[in-house]
């Protein structure tokens, strides 16, 4: 990408983020839940377009009152799923510190969890149950952190308990980011000590991105143990991505 085009892209990103801030500040206090969700969905779709990300999915809708899990690759993941249907996400607290996007994700219903905090897990567990019973879609990334494509890390089991308590199935999804040649697009990987700015730079300079969002068969939670659910969900995701675990 030449410098002029790159700087124009940066300007587009900045304008879109500011637009999101204004929507949250000026409109959200007055909008209904349905209107907020519509705004979140459209804004997420537009954000992906700004980053030259095209979503390819194999479903038309997402069930309400459900628990959605997925492998976790990038900060883009939340916005990819929200571009289909806004969810109440659980995400690591590190995201809150991201410039503007962390606050915008919070306004969109994301709840942050501190790593290793048992009190946070307990608080969020009850939050998830309340949201499911209210008919909301809740979503979390059971790996607990991002992983490079081609890897599916072990799934943490604690939050799967919410699905058991609410008597709803787990709905697994898989995410894959591909380049123009149909190969894994590793410029999207957000791992290690990479900063948000560096990740954004990689994506903007990496060319077109096609993200495949695939829904798998739901996994019943009735009579299951959370560790069983976590293991079954990880196996389903790894098999769909053709990844050894």
What does this entry look like structurally?
The protein is an alpha/beta fold and 245 residues long. The protein has one domain: 3-Layer(aba) Sandwich (Cobalt-precorrin-4 Transmethylase, domain 1). A seven-stranded mixed beta sheet has the order 1-7-6-2-5-3-4, sandwiched between helices. Helix 1 packs antiparallel against helix 2. The model has no long low-confidence stretch (mean pLDDT 89).
The CATH superfamily is known as Tetrapyrrole methylase, N-terminal domain
Number of strands: 7
Can you list the strand order of the major beta sheet?
1-7-6-2-5-3-4
Q: How many structural domains are formed by the residues? A: 1
Report the CATH C-level class. Alpha Beta
Named CATH topology: Cobalt-precorrin-4 Transmethylase, domain 1
What coarse outline follows from CA principal-axis ratios? globular
Structural class: alpha/beta
The biggest sheet amounts to: 7 strands, mixed
Strand content: 5-15%
What is the overall pLDDT average? 89
Radius of gyration: 17 Å
Which CATH architecture?
3-Layer(aba) Sandwich
Number of helices: 8
Series of H and E elements: HHEEHEHEHEHEHEH
**Helical residue percent band:** 40-55%
Q: Poorly predicted ranges (pLDDT <50, ≥5 residues)?
A: none
Please report the distance between the alpha carbons of the first and last residues: 37 Å
Pfam families: Acyltransferase (PF01553)
Protein name: Acyltransferase
Keywords: Acyltransferase, Lipid biosynthesis, Lipid metabolism, Membrane, Transferase, Transmembrane, Transmembrane helix
Pathway: Lipid metabolism
